[in-house]
Amino acid sequence: MQLDRILASARFVHSERLSRFLRYTVEQTMAGHAEQLKEYPIGVEVFGRKDSFDPRIDAIVRVQAITLRSRLKDYYAKEGSDDPVIIEYTKGGYAPVVRDRFNVEPGLNGAEQASIAVLPFLNLSSDLENEYFSDGLTEELISALTNVKGMRVVARTSVFQFKGKAEDVRKIGAQLNARMVLEGSVRKSGDHLRITAQLIDVASGFHTWSRTYRIEMRDLFAVQEEIAAAIVTTLSTMVDRSAGRPTKSLDAYHAYLKGRFYLNKWSEAGFRKSIHFFETAIQLDENMAAAWAAHAVACFQLACCGTEPPSELMPKARAAAARALQLDDSLAEAHVALGGVLAIHDWDWAGSETEFARAMELDPDGAPAYQCYSVACLIPQGRLQEALEAAQQACELDPLSPSVNSSLALAHFVLGEYNEAIDYFKKALEIDPNFFLARWWLGVSYLNASMLLKAFAQFRKAGALSQDSANDAIKYSYGHALIGRRDKARRKLEALMSKSRERYFSPVLIAAIHVALAETDAAFDWLDKACEAHDTWLVWLGVDRRFDSIRSHKQFRALLKKLGLSSVARSTTAG
């Protein structure tokens, strides 16, 4: 039976929730009850929600339906590529449609044949500063092709792992599961551009289309659209909707591309630089929705670094996301940013879930929505299995992203699965050895797994990458307190306090040190400060294993209640 074959596949065998969803809806449809497949009964029968379940507040069914459609699409592109029967779900519906693949599907056979990886365009200009431009052109082409109906486009972070590497395109295509690869180069001289682009069939290694453009800068948008249209024609598919030009101002566009260049570095310094360039783009074109959306993401990510007061950055992120959506409600990136702010800063869990669900509806193949939904919305609420599944979905969509792999590692970490967490943090570091967050969390994972020497080694490497003495003091003070070196922990903590008037650092991290030192009153004092500041680390309090020893205190439960959260019981106390 087709259903049993799907449920036994690698895409579903380890996903109990999606398997229940698929089986329930198929069986109900086969029994003639398709019209009864609404959000409420599915939420109660499949996902165990109580009778008080309100789909307007809890978007679990909509979110899981998006994940299910994406997972089925991947299944039929790989393990199920030869299946004669296809089970699929229309957007917004919960009753499956069963059809014969070979009698219905014209032209391309399967999603795999409509999959493409856009490799980073080479910067052949003499000025290395133009690297932002070649990277930006690559991103714009990825964005344009993402809007093509029936096409799967490999995520930006995964393809950029091949930047500057002379790999065989057949090997790249196999690794990224892409049938076609687009590669090219850009040479910029003054206002003149020379852009080459070529589309390569992975299976044969042959060029199926190539062209060279010699243009002036003002014609750039037209060339981007022409390249995307040529690829669409070559792949024999249909354009669902035009991505549209982000702005009429080339100067604003250049500033926007520079902003994205630094945003994609995923570092505190990169976030700061990206904010500057996005603000420049907005000054040049105040109606550039894409710049507002990216500005919102940059402000949100910098706030999450915990080195600046969230009261300064989170309102900026919210306002920028709102402005972007006012200009263009179809921007998934703006919905993701707003969902993050509503969760981490406003503690509005229902509102956050609505924004993430909308982002996934708009861009079901976009990893950022699943990633942020997992980390910012699901993990804080203690919905850990859902968080793991969302992170797994993000990783399937963007398998070579160090950030996405780190989020999947974090989902394992909060479940207490330290070996799995360590494996994924290591994978993130194999992709990018300089990815600070993975270094830091790998150290924390080693601490929780009682591998103290390995933990301190990772902290030293993370400190060298961040060059942040305050964060170093936090890590080492906590580590020393955890293993009973109270004097060393105290000295580090005192050094940290001397910097408290100069800069912001997360009160939650200081509270954790006091917990490790068994100084409960001091810990709650710092947690109260974190609550007043709406500190970005506070929302993970219910699942943060460093606070297990004080979890039963009335003050702890009262604090979680302020956050709209409940305590998540733990069987062991961890660092």
Could you describe the 3D structure shown?
- With 575 residues, the chain is an alpha/beta fold.
- Among the domains are: 2-105, no CATH class; 112-245, ABC-type transport auxiliary lipoprotein component (Rossmann fold), CATH 3.40.50; 246-364, Tetratricopeptide repeat domain (Serine Threonine Protein Phosphatase 5, Tetratricopeptide repeat).
- 57% of the residues lie in helices and 8% in strands.
- The chain has 26 helices and eight strands.
- Strands 3, 4, 5, 6, 7 and 8 form a six-stranded mixed beta sheet that branches.
- Strand 7 (192-201) and strand 8 (207-216) form a beta hairpin.
- Helix 18 runs parallel beside helix 20 and helix 20 (436-448) runs antiparallel to helix 21 (452-466).
- It starts with a helix and ends in a 13-residue tail after the last helix.
Overall strand count: 8
Amino- and carboxy-terminal Cα gap: 48 Å
> In which range does the helix fraction lie?
55-70%
Number of helices: 26
Mean residue pLDDT: 83
- Which architecture name of the domain at 112-245 does CATH use? 3-Layer(aba) Sandwich
Strand content: 5-15%
Using the coordinates above, name the CATH class of the domain at 112-245: Alpha Beta
The major β-sheet equals:
6 strands, mixed
- CATH superfamily grouping of the domain at 112-245: ABC-type transport auxiliary lipoprotein component
The parts where pLDDT drops under 50 for at least 5 residues are 104-113, 236-243, 569-575
CATH topology of the domain at 112-245: Rossmann fold
Radius of gyration from the alpha-carbon trace, in angstroms: 24 Å
User: In terms of structural class, how would the helical and strand content be classed?
Assistant: alpha/beta
- Write down the overall geometry: globular
